[in-house]
Amino acid sequence: MMHNAIEIRNLTKNYKGFSLGPLDFTIPKGCMVGYIGENGAGKSTTLKAILGLIHADSGEIKIFGNSTNEHEPELMNKIGVVFDAINLPADMKVQEVGTFCKLAFTTWAENTFNDYLKRFTLPDDKKVKALSRGMKMKLSLSIALSHQAELLILDEATSGLDPVVRDEILDILLDFLQDENHTVLISSHILSDLEKAADYIAFLHNGKLLFMEEKDLLVERYALCSLDDETIGHLDPEAIVGRRRHAFGQDLLVIRNLMPKSIKLTNASIEDIMVYIIKGVESESVAL
Amino acid sequence: MNIQISNASNDPIYVQIKNQIKSAIISGSMAAGEQLPSIRYLAKELRVSVITTKRAYDELEAEGFINSVQGRGSYVSLQNEEFIREEQLRKVEASLLEAIKGAKLAGLSMKDLKEILDTLEGVEDDA
Question: What is the second-level CATH architecture of the domain A4-217?
Fold first, then answer.
């Protein structure tokens, strides 16, 4: 019994002007992981390496315990992929997509696919190029979920979609996760609506993993507060993770249990944590 | 069973879930032996992480309110009558402690207090 969906060991990939890694992390089965970081942090490079679309310079990637160096079609059937752009011939009609995919996946489930088309009210007779961004995204997701995948990888797939569609997609992902053998890895730079349901947050910055943590622990550990400079002078410097100075005081991301009880704290979102930590790293004043 | 999550609350979400299930059990709206929703279903419906709901269930189990059977699900603990009694006893004690504090402030003796208690019990019985 294999308990991990993805294991990454010592992964590196060097481009001119950008280096990814060395990267190590493990994604257990049955969870949703939010892979976050700025544009250009290396999220897509990591995902492409996982999918075997690029060759890493070093390191090993295992999916369901199998090394991806020997890319078997069987393994690829088990991975559903949704990118920000759809990889289908532009003139193909929606109704032809199913026939096309039957050739690509040995585990293709026509009925499941048709059910998704109905659920998303995707028009049969429209060509791929005529679909809106939201529709294309839903079509991609329908394909990814119709070949009995156990691992779903979404790369910036929900960026640029309206909140209503994002909400629908969250529901679909949560349905998918009802099977405890199913795993979702979703990369994004906007997580506000999806973060609620993520089990882990992996945070990439400049090609390095800053942390991979249970989301609940992050939310418990960090908090926000707004204080004047004098009060901040009395704080344990270790408590301050990141700050934004303004003309009338400072906004801080702090470590909750290092703060005096008398100071009112508010909950920090994952986005708050991401922004303050990146600012903190860049000003080198951080204790993570 | 009703569960409401508040993101503005200072209690972590798993604590909010735990406390609401606990009060459903203590109030009797969830009976002994009754099956709880699966952690994955609960997580999906509340749109929280599976880790969150699992932690709530783990703590409820550690406190004896529920039993989890591998692969079968979680059930309200059968021996929980005792727990309910204890929990209610604790509540009564806390209320009485409040009453004693109030009585001391008002300069009432313990004898006065017991008389009040008897009178109130009579009122309650008549009702």
Answer: 3-Layer(aba) Sandwich (3.40)
* Residue B79 in this model has a pLDDT that exceeds 70: no
Please check whether residue A258 touches B, CB under 8 A. no
Task: Specify whether the CB–CB gap between A21 and A12 falls below 8 A.
Answer: yes
Residues in chain B closer than 8 A to A220 (CB atoms): 12
Q: Which residues of B touch A216 (CB under 8 A)?
A: 12-14, 49, 51-52, 55
Listed by start position, the domains of chain A span 4-217, 219-287
Interval A239-288: pLDDT, tens = 999 999 888 899 999 999 999 988 999 989 888 998 898 887 666 544 44
**pTM for this predicted structure:** 0.82
Spatial CA neighbour of A145 closest among A201, A181, A107: A107
Give exposure, A226-251, as e/b (b: 16+ Cβ within 10 Å). Answer: ebeeeebeebeeebbbbbeeeeeebe
Q: What residues of chain A, 185 to 224, have a C-beta less than 8 Å from chain B?
A: 196-200, 214-216, 219-220
Q: Is the domain of B69 the same as that of B36? A: yes
Q: Looking at the domain assignment, is residue B30 inside a domain? A: yes
